[in-house]
Specification:
The chain is an alpha/beta fold. The protein is built from ten helices and seven strands. It has helices at 18-25, 45-60, 83-88, 108-113, 118-122, 130-147, 162-174, 211-220, 226-235, 245-257, and strands at 33-38, 64-69, 96-98, 101-103, 150-155, 183-189, 202-205. Strand 5, helix 7 (162-174) and strand 6 form a beta-alpha-beta unit.
Length: 261
C-alpha cells in the first residue's frame, strides 16, 4: 500500500536546465542569441523554455513572445507551409503566407510605407516569391525587436516544414541586429536534424531526469510526501532508470485516480 500523499511545504520545482538556459538567454541583447532545445518527447523542453522566459522577464521586464508550433507531417511537406511562422506572427502580420506567396488586403497608405513591398502586397505585382516573404518577415522582426526584447519560439521542430526552415535560415543570415533591444530565437524539438547546416544554433540537450531529480520532481512539482515519492519511484520500476517529467506526472495522475496515492 502506498503512503499517503500529503503535500509538503517545499519550494516550487524547477527543471535542471533552467539556469543554463537563462544564462544563454542573457546574451540576447548583444546582437541576439539562437538556441536549439532538443530532447526526447515528454522530457519537459517546452516547460523549460516557459520557465526560463518567465525568469528572464522578471529580470529585464516584459518580452514580446512570438510562438508557433509545427504540425505533424510538416517535415515531409504535407502540412501547410509557414505553419509555425504564420502562427508566431499572427498578431503582427495581417497576411496569409501561402505556398504561392503572400496575399493581403492592404490600403494604399500602408503599402506606401512598405516601399517596394507595396506592389505585391496590393496584388498588382503578381505572387510574391518566398524570398520576398523572408525579407518582409525579417524587416518586421527587426521592427518589433527594436521596440522591445523579442523571443521567437518554434516548437516541435522535428516537423519543421521547408518554408519555415527557409525563414529561419534567412533570418539567421540576413537579420540586422544593430539597434535591437534584444532577440532570442529558440527552436525546440525532439531532434533538430532539419536545421543542421542551415541554421546554426547553440544547442542545449534536455535529458530525462535521473533518480535524484525524479524524487525532487515528485516532492516539489507533484507535491508528494517523501515516502510517497520513494514508493512511486519503486512502483515505476526502481530508482535506476531515467524518467521524463511527463511520465512522472502521468504516473502520479494514474495512482491518484486509482485511489492509491
Amino acid at each position: 500500500e502506498a503512503p499517503a500523499a500529503t503535500p509538503p511545504l517545499a519550494a516550487a520545482w524547477e527543471a535542471p536546465g533552467v539556469p543554463k538556459l537563462v544564462e544563454a538567454l542573457a546574451s540576447m541583447g548583444g546582437g541576439g542569441v539562437w538556441l536549439g532545445i532538443a530532447g526526447p518527447e515528454g522530457s519537459g523542453k517546452s516547460a523549460l523554455v516557459d520557465t526560463a522566459l518567465a525568469r528572464l522577464e522578471a529580470g529585464i521586464g516584459p518580452l514580446l513572445i512570438l510562438r508557433g508550433t509545427c504540425q505533424p507531417g510538416a517535415g515531409d511537406d504535407r502540412a501547410p507551409p509557414f505553419g509555425p511562422i504564420q502562427e508566431a506572427f499572427s498578431r503582427h502580420v495581417p497576411l496569409a503566407l501561402t505556398a504561392g506567396g503572400m496575399h493581403a488586403a492592404i490600403d494604399d497608405a500602408a503599402a506606401m510605407l512598405l516601399g517596394p513591398m507595396g506592389a505585391f502586397l496590393r496584388g498588382d505585382g503578381g505572387a510574391s516569391s518566398e524570398a520576398d516573404i523572408f525579407a518582409y518577415l525579417g524587416r518586421k522582426l527587426e521592427s518589433l525587436a527594436a521596440a522591445r526584447p523579442v523571443a521567437l519560439v518554434v516548437d516541435d521542430a522535428q516537423w519543421l516544414d521547408s518554408s519555415s526552415l527557409g525563414v529561419l535560415a534567412w533570418l539567421r543570415r540576413h537579420l540586422r541586429t544593430d539597434g535591437l533591444r534584444g532577440l532570442a530565437v529558440i527552436v525546440v524539438g525532439r531532434d533538430l536534424d532539419r536545421l543542421d547546416g542551415q541554421v546554426p544554433l547553440r544547442r542545449l540537450d534536455v535529458e530525462p531526469l535521473d533518480p535524484d531529480q525524479q524524487r525532487d520532481y515528485l516532492i516539489r512539482a507533484a507535491r508528494l510526501a517523501p515516502a510517497a515519492a520513494d514508493w512511486t519511484q519503486d512502483w515505476l520500476g526502481g530508482r535506476r532508470a531515467r524518467q521524463s517529467p511527463r511520465a512522472l506526472a502521468e504516473a502520479v495522475e494514474h495512482l491518484c485516480r486509482k485511489g492509491i496515492l
